[in-house]
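Budget justification aside, the reviewers requested a transparent look at the raw inputs and outputs of the sequence design task funded under Objective 1. We therefore reproduce one unedited record. The lines immediately below are the structure tokens for a 115-residue chain.
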């Protein structure tokens, strides 16, 4: 089974299952995002999230940079469908089903994030 198929199968329960296995899950995202965001001297114009999955990481970044444009990139459609529901009604977030190891959108992103 290809990796895309595996992630598509677990997309809806992915975040909850990760929290079961990683006890400091929320603390990690909150503290690491807060630390990095506070050290930046500018608000990034574009933030790319590579391997975005369900869009969990951008939820923490969005608190600091709500005006930045976000591009959530993942290899699976179902994971990004969860992200689309998470960010329903927010217009500055785009979604790309893409194997970023092969190609990425042209441009100079101000910030690339990934966990």
């Amino acid at each position: 089974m290809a990796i895309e198929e595996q992630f598509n199968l677990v997309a809806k329960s992915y975040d909850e299952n990760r929290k079961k296995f990683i006890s400091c899950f929320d603390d990690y995202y909150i503290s690491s995002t807060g630390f990095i965001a506070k050290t930046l001297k500018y608000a990034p114009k574009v933030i790319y999230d590579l391997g975005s999955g369900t869009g969990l990481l951008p939820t923490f970044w969005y608190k600091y940079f709500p005006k930045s444009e976000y591009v959530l990139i993942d290899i699976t459609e179902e994971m990004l469908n969860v992200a689309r529901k998470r960010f329903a009604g927010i217009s500055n977030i785009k979604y790309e089903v893409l194997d970023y190891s092969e190609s990425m959108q042209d441009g100079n992103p101000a910030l690339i994030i990934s966990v």
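The two ends are 23 Å apart (CA to CA). Residues 25-39 form the longest helix (15 residues). Computational costs for records of this kind are itemized in the attached budget.
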